[in-house]
Amino acid sequence: QSVLTQPPSVSAAPGQKVTISCSGSSSNIGSRYVSWYQQLPGTAPKLLIYDNDKRPSGVPDRFSASKSGTSATLDITGLQTGDEADYYCGTWDTTLTAGVFGGGTKLTVL
Amino acid sequence: QVQLVQSGAEVKKPGSSVKVSCKVSGGTFNTYALFWVRQAPGQGLEWMGGILPMFGPTNSAQKFQGRVTFTADESTDTTYMELSSLKSDDTAIYYCARVRLDYYGDPNYFDPWGQGTLVTVSS
Prior knowledge:
The complex is a heterodimer of chains A (110) and B (123). Chain A has 110 residues and is an all-beta fold. Chain A has strands at residues 9-12, 18-23, 35-39, 46-49, 63-68, 71-76, 85-93, 98-101, 105-109.
């Protein structure tokens, strides 16, 4: 059972938009930055979003994210088949004094 | 550009220990926070803990306390994760990553990541 809650899977057609949610509490998302990671099949995770809504250089602006209260969301627009991957949210938990991740969301581009 | 290269796959017996290395290149090693995350087969990411520059090892995640040790060798720009008393459910890919700290000095985000090291625990 992950501390952060994500939907196990989402799907959409190429060109469409998908939203992945990440729900936590006041001791994690509610008080710290959220980051998002993309894990393509058989590869290591890659940073997609940091500090709630910032994109590292090289990440397309089709990927965006936001945070409100104890929840965060990742939006992917103009879906491409190459976006099929597992997506994870992560943050620090001040009660656990440990990093925490969501359980991951598998994106299928139909 | 910082790169992290990890040691190769390991097969271990239950009850033994494993030590995975992570060599850092392209930056100033002793300024980096280097942390470890593992991923069991078909499962999600699990934060383990790591090492902070100048301060040494951080507290590990509670489930690993007493079993995991994080060290760093500045002479070779390498950090290590050693896990003891291995069990079958320790079978996983172990990733190292550089961690950026937040305003409070706590781990914020992971970037970049090593390629991962598969540790298989089997009798």
